Structure formats: structure tokens, C-alpha cells
Backbone:
């Protein structure tokens, strides 16, 4: 039984209810009155939808105002049933699926009971029909059947016949009167013709109780909680299956948004957009080799004239510079791949295992394209990197050459006095590396390839010995720096220029492209960030819009007993289904996605390694969608979403 004591409710300073006190028990209870008299406000209060009022309402001793969220959802699933003038059914589901909705919060769905209720209400033959194909009278019977599945103690009906014709109105009232024989039925109506002499009447006028006290109020025993009230994972996935089937378009939009966002994030994080600007640099490296990244540091050199012999524009100039200490500064720099000393040799003879190998001289400083075996000489012992052409003349493999000792002799030019003096020197050193000594040079617009077969690179210890034998006292030795990237090359060049050092290298080929690429990378980085943010915002916006479009659906869930915990699980199973479908769709369409990214960015993003990242990004965006949808559910106000009248 309901006991209502001195209940008042105001809207904008005006009373919708003013000091109402009454009781309602088993049987038919009609709340009547003109529009704005407070009928719907009283209904909201006794049902717990509005707990902000003055006074007290109890049901079987339980204070309705003090119901927790969990208790309220229990009441809505087991004690209170609701019948609405707008039916409030899930239109795209079948009759049976609507009727079974409250049962998802039970351990198992009682379909046998559902069939019996449908038979009693004479709509069993409509069980598999979608609700949106039914007439108004049929829909109202489906709504009643759904509430009877709760086996409620109270049925609260808000204008249940206002949308029906006379025949269906009578049928609906007959059903409610039949139910009231062993339950409390509360009907809000403005149609007094529906009321018979056996019913209790609560007549309201401008928020005040004006009718005589109702008769035959039967007290009901103290409220007990016994029914199970939880959503299992199995039932959550069953609901998800029904929702996907009934709203496949909505599901497909969510799946596509997740997949597109995942691909866009993958494009952003993988650097595909930024790397699209690397094409020119890669082309240069493939044309000129890794030596393109070399910076030569020499103590003196003579500049060359211009290619058009214009002496005024590019005059000859002798350059001398102090490079002492620079080698030690760059030998361990993280931007440097390796360093090597540039010592030219002449009349080279090499003896290995007693056999002498003459080396054809070029008269130039050694050159290295790339190390193809072993390592560069960095130890304190006499170590050397030899040309691969020399190893071939020995008739052994590069790996077999590593560790062998050579007796090396050559002539070395001593420039200490300003005039070259040739001196002979020799040393025994261990081979620690083998190098490809191909060099590339542009001649008359064509790139020509040369091999410098007398390129021997010694460790500092070994080179100090050879230079000492030649009487060279200048400790500063010319050396090269192999930068890790063209960008590092230009950065080191700029750094040396600031120190007053003029390095040698193919800077003109690289610099403009590197600086343009840095600018492009910065711009593409900003574009990537924008695309990444846009991808996440797109999914969240779609989830939020979809969520607010589902507010009526969420409200129906709530009056069926679903609370935030139940919906969190349902939301989770929906998002898991969407995420798994999006991942599968991405895998199936990856060849087409690669074709698109190749056309846009000259790169394929969905290779075997990146697919895992793509899966992770879809899951991550799915989490954002999950949280956004949860916000929409939490913000759904039941009475507003279900349009329960004015007052």
C-alpha cells in the first residue's frame, strides 16, 4: 500500500501539488483532474521518478524518496510496472523481444510464461511481428504484457487509453481491471467515463486533493526482496544480438567509424604522411650511395673553380683550418654512424700469409660507400678496414678475411714543411672490416661509378705509427664523419660552420631537400595530429549523437529495471561486438586500404607489423566510444525521455 503524507511539489514557484495526503492499496485507483492539476506530478513521485519533493511517500513501509539507484532499478524490475499513453516499446524489436526485456535481468528468461501472457492478452499470433507494424491497441497490449512479465505488485498507468479508439480503450481498461483483482493499479486519466463505482478516485484540482477519501484500502505485508536482479554476460550478448539485428544501420555506422578512425590513427602514428616527403632523399641515396652522408674534415684544401670557369663567381682560394680535437668531439656523437681517418697512400704493397698483393694506386684519399663485413677500426691495436676488391684478389670471402694479419707498406707524403716529401712506412695490422669502396660522381649530368681500390682505413694507433715513420709531426689528422641521416649531416655541417670550420661534402645535393623535407615534416606532423584528433572526435561525436538518439530506448531500459551497472555491461558487449567487427572488416579490406594509402602517401600501412597496431587503435577508439555512450545513458532522465505529460 502507498501512504502519501503532506506531499508538495513546486515548479518555478507554483504548486503542482500542495500538501497532499492519501493512501492507495490493492484494486483500481484513478487519479483524475484537469490538465495541470498535478496528476502526472503525483504519478512521478509515487513511482520514484521524481524524488525531489516535500513530504513523504512510502510503499509497504519503504520510503520512496530514499530509494537508492540500485533499489529503484529493483523496484522497476520486480515491483512497479508501467503502462504509457505512447506505449514506449522498442519499435524495431519483435513483440516477444519486447515482452522479454525485463527478463534479461533474471537468471534465465521465462519464455513459457511470456507465451502464456501473450495468449491471455490475445496477441500470441503476433509474437514474431515487429512492434512498428502493429496497431495502437495491439501495441498497448504488448506494453501490458511486458509489464506483467515482471509479476509486479503495482501497475502505474499514465493516460493508457488517450491514444486509442473507444473499442481498444475498453479492452485496455478491462485488462487493467482484471489485473487489479490481486494488484494495485494506479491510472492517471482525464476520462471519467472509464471509472466505475468500485474504483478509488483521487481527484486533484490545482494540486489539491478534492475528492472524498477512497474506500477499501487494503494493507499489504512488509516489502521483501527475493528476485534475482542482475544482467549476466550471456544475456548482455543476447540483447546486443537483438539490437544489432534491429538497428543494423546504426551498428554499421559505428563499425565503419571505428575502422576509419583506427586506419587514420595508424596513418598518423606510423608517420606515413610525414614519410611521404622522404622520397627525394631516398632517391639520392640510391643514386649516390651512403657516402652521400659523408662529411670530410681536413686541415687544408684548395677550392675548385665553378663549373663554368667563372673566376669572379668562384675564385680559387687556399683554406687552412685548425681541426685539432674535432675527431674526439664527434667519435661518439649519436648522430654519427662512424668516423674514419683520411690518409692517402701511394705505392701500396700488402703481404698476407707470405704472398704479396700489389695494389693499384689512385693518388686520392680513401673512400668508403658502406661497410659490408666486420667493423670500423676503433681499438688501440693496429687495426685496418680493407677494400672488398683486395679480399677478392685473395680468393677468400669477406668473413674469412676478418682476423687475418697483413703486412702493409706504402709511401706517405709529408707536408709539414709546406713542400711534399715522400717517405716509406710499413706496419703489421689485423683486418677488422671489409668495405665497399664504390664512389659516385656526377660528370656532365650523368652519375658515374668508380671503385677506389687503395682505400685502407687504419685505427688511430696504426695510423700514428705510419705517420711517425714518415716524420709527420702534425697530430691533427684529416677524417670523415658518416652521418646517420642526411638531416644529421646538414645539422653537423651547420654546427661546424658555427665553429669556423669549412667541411667538405655533397651538401648542395642534400641541403635544399633536407630543409624542405624538415618543413614538410613539420607541416605533415601538424596534419597528422589534426587527423588523429579528428578521428577520435569523429567516433566520439557519432557515439554521442547515437547515444542521445537512443535516450528513449535508454529510458525504456531504466523503467524495465536496468541501472548504470547493467547498462555498463550491455554497453561493453555492444562495443566489443563493434570493435571485433571493425577489426575483421579492416583485415578483409586491407588490400583496398593499402591501394588508397599508396595513392595518397606512396606507402602501405597495413602490413603484417602494422596490423597489430591497427587492432590496438580500433580497440582504443572503441574505449572512447564506450565512455561517450555511457555518458548519454547516465544523462538520460527517464520522465523527460518518456514524455510523461506536463503536470
Residues:
Amino acid at each position: 500500500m502507498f501512504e502519501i503524507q503532506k506531499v508538495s511539489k513546486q515548479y518555478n514557484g507554483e504548486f503542482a501539488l500542495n500538501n497532499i495526503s492519501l493512501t492507495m492499496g490493492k484494486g483500481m485507483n484513478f487519479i483524475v483532474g484537469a490538465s495541470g492539476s498535478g496528476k502526472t506530478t503525483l504519478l512521478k513521485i509515487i513511482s520514484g521518478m521524481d524524488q525531489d519533493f516535500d513530504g513523504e511517500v512510502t510503499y509497504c513501509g519503504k520510503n520512496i524518496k530514499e530509494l537508492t539507484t540500485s533499489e529503484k532499478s529493483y523496484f522497476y524490475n520486480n515491483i512497479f510496472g508501467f503502462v504509457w499513453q505512447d506505449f514506449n516499446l522498442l519499435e524495431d524489436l519483435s513483440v516477444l523481444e519486447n515482452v522479454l526485456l525485463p527478463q534479461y535481468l533474471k537468471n534465465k528468461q521465462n519464455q513459457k510464461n511470456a507465451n502464456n501472457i501473450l495468449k491471455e492478452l490475445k496477441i500470441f499470433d503476433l509474437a514474431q511481428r515487429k512492434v512498428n507494424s502493429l496497431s495502437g491497441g495491439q501495441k498497448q497490449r504488448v506494453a501490458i504484457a511486458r509489464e506483467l512479465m515482471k509479476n509486479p505488485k503495482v501497475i502505474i498507468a499514465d493516460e493508457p487509453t488517450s491514444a486509442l479508439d473507444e473499442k481498444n480503450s475498453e479492452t485496455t481498461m478491462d485488462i487493467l481491471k482484471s489485473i487489479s483483482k490481486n494488484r494495485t493499479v494506479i491510472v492517471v486519466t482525464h476520462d471519467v467515463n472509464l471509472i466505475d463505482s468500485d474504483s478509488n478516485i483521487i481527484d486533484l484540482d490545482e494540486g489539491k486533493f478534492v475528492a472524498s477519501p477512497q474506500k477499501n484500502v487494503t494493507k499489504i505485508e512488509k516489502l521483501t526482496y527475493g528476485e534475482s536482479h542482475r544482467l549476466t554476460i550471456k544475456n548482455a550478448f543476447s540483447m546486443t544480438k537483438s539490437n544489432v539485428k534491429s538497428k543494423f544501420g546504426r551498428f554499421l555506422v559505428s563499425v565503419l567509424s571505428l575502422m576509419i578512425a583506427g586506419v587514420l590513427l595508424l596513418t598518423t602514428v606510423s608517420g606515413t604522411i610525414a614519410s611521404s616527403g622522404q622520397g627525394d632523399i631516398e632517391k639520392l641515396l640510391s643514386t649516390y650511395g651512403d657516402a652521400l652522408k659523408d662529411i670530410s674534415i681536413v686541415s687544408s684544401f684548395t677550392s675548385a673553380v665553378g663549373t663554368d670557369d667563372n673566376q669572379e663567381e668562384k675564385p680559387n682560394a687556399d683554406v687552412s683550418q685548425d681541426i685539432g680535437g674535432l675527431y674526439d668531439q664527434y667519435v661518439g656523437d649519436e648522430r654519427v654512424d662512424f668516423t674514419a681517418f683520411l690518409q692517402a697512400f701511394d705505392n701500396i704493397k700488402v703481404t698476407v700469409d707470405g704472398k704479396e698483393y700489389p695494389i693499384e694506386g689512385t693518388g686520392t684519399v680513401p673512400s668508403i660507400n658502406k661497410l659490408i663485413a666486420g667493423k670500423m677500426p676503433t681499438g688501440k691495436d693496429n687495426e685496418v678496414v680493407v677494400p672488398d676488391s683486395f679480399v677478392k684478389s685473395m680468393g677468400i670471402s669477406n668473413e674469412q678475411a676478418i682476423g687475418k694479419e697483413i703486412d702493409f707498406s706504402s709511401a706517405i707524403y709529408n707536408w709539414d714543411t709546406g713542400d711534399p716529401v715522400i717517405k716509406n712506412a710499413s706496419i703489421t695490422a689485423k683486418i677488422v672490416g671489409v668495405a665497399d669502396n664504390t664512389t659516385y660522381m656526377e660528370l656532365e649530368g650523368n652519375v658515374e661509378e668508380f671503385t677506389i681500390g687503395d682505400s685502407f682505413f687504419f685505427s688511430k694507433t696504426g695510423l700514428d705509427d705510419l705517420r711517425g715513420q714518415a716524420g709527420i709531426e702534425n697530430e691533427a689528422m684529416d677524417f670523415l664523419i658518416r652521418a646517420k641521416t642526411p638531416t644529421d649531416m646538414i645539422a653537423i655541417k651547420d654546427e661546424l660552420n658555427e665553429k669556423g670550420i669549412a667541411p667538405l661534402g655533397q651538401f648542395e645535393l642534400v641541403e635544399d631537400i633536407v630543409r624542405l623535407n624538415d618543413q614538410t615534416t613539420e607541416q605533415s606532423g601538424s596534419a597528422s595530429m589534426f587527423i588523429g584528433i579528428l578521428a577520435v572526435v569523429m567516433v566520439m561525436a557519432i557515439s554521442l549523437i547515437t547515444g542521445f538518439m537512443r535516450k528513449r530506448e535508454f529510458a525504456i531500459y531504466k523503467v524495465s529495471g536496468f541501472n548504470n551497472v547493467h547498462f555498463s555491461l550491455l554497453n561493453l558487449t555492444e562495443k566489443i561486438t563493434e570493435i571485433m567487427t571493425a577489426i575483421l572488416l579492416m583485415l578483409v579490406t586491407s588490400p583496398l586500404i593499402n591501394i588508397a594509402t599508396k595513392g595518397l602517401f606512396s606507402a602501405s600501412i597495413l602490413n603484417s607489423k602494422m596490423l597489430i597496431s591497427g587492432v590496438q587503435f580500433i580497440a582504443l577508439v572503441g574505449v572512447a566510444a564506450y565512455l561517450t555512450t555511457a555518458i548519454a545513458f547516465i544523462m538520460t532522465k527517464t520522465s523527460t525521455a518518456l514524455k510523461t505529460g506536463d503536470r
Notes: The chain has three domains: 2-229, 234-275+519-641, 279-304+315-508.
